[in-house]
Amino acid sequence: MARQAKSNVNLDKKRNQVIDSVKSVNCMFINMAEGLIEETVSTGTKYQRLAVKAIKKSEPIIEKQVDLIFDSVEMAIDQVQANNKRFQRLLGITKQVNKAKKTIGKLVENVSDKVEEGMEDANKTIQSTFKQAKKETEKAVKVVKAEAKKTRKTATKSIKAAPKKTTTRRRKTA
User: Fold this and answer.
1) Digitized pLDDT (tens) for each residue of the chain, 174 residues in all
2) How many CA atoms, within 13 angstroms, populate the side-chain half-sphere of residue 10?
3) DSSP 171
4) Angle formed by the axes of helices 2-83 and 94-161, to 10°?
5) Range 106-111 contact pairs with CB under 8 angstroms and sequence separation of 24 or more
């Protein structure tokens, strides 16, 4: 009998140790999952901010490149006009060159108008995309936080609901 009572006490101790270990491991996993979710959300937010900055900083560079292209074309036209008068007289192509100048001038105007419209449309599209991405990120953060809270509540309820201690039956001796 003494042996059986002693073994029951040992079993109770071991069982309590196992339950405590499971509870602590469960809490660790919950905390780790929460940390992982929070870090993922914060990292995603940082990357999104970085993308916004990169695009905003690239806009002036694109504008400068477009300006450089048009300046180059204008310089080429000026050079053709200034240096080719003698060449035109020698070959007798003055009328054709004047027509080409007018055609090129119209072409440059049309292209510049289209590029400006395209830049405005691209700017509007980029801004609306950023606004939408920001809204989606905020929604995702709210959803993730809500799910983390639910998971934490469920886990704490299951930990609290775990049986604390079992009673051992002792046999009556006759």
Assistant:
1) 556 666 777 888 888 888 888 888 888 888 888 888 888 888 888 888 888 888 888 888 888 888 898 898 888 888 877 777 777 777 778 788 788 889 988 998 998 888 888 888 888 888 888 888 888 888 888 888 888 888 878 877 777 776 665 555 555 554
2) 6
3) P
4) 170
5) 108/70, 108/73, 108/74, 108/77
AA letter at 69: I
